[in-house]
Design a protein that fits this description.
This protein is of the alpha+beta class and about 180 residues long. The chain has one domain. The protein is built from 5 helices and 8 strands; from the N terminus they run βααβββαβαββαβ. The chain has a 4-stranded antiparallel beta sheet with strand order 6-7-5-8. A two-stranded antiparallel ribbon has the order 1-2. Helix 3 crosses helix 5. The longest helix is centred in the middle third of the chain and has 14 residues. The relative contact order is 0.16. The mean pLDDT is about 80.
Length: about 180
Amino acid sequence: MTCKLIRHELDFQITFDFVREALEKTNTLSCKIMDILDFEKGRFFTLLTPDAHIERLHIFESYILKQNPRLKYDDKSPATYQIIPTICDELCVYIISKLNLNNKINCVIDDFNATYGEDYEDDLFSSVGLFYENEVYYKLDFSTASSELILQCLHRSNIFWHSLCVLTEAHFDDIVI
């Protein structure tokens, strides 16, 4: 079940400093974004669920989504776990709506944990993957994207410290890095 995401504008300088530090020297896509985008021509925003902790909006290293209480496996064990929520379902709805709205838009999702090599085999990569050197990305557009496929790609990208998804009108056949 998905819920409506609320757009929150972010302070430009605070956010840019964080984005620059997070993207610099991460991988080729991240570095190229830093090189070619004029961030001052745009705005930063985040999409959050209604129960997000808005007071933490600019504390990027902390949890902003509502956390589930610690739950015990059983009464005999002191072990606990905590479910960390994501907004992948909500982002999927957002991405598919943008792709359907404009057939020139491509969505590129970074699979930071994957490493491409000549023997690399993966069903998701075979259907929508592309690579640069040893970096793995997924490219979707209005003709290839489905909710299920977008979710698969987002789950591959959703590691706790790095998740990058770019919506762009760039044509990948023409890109030279």
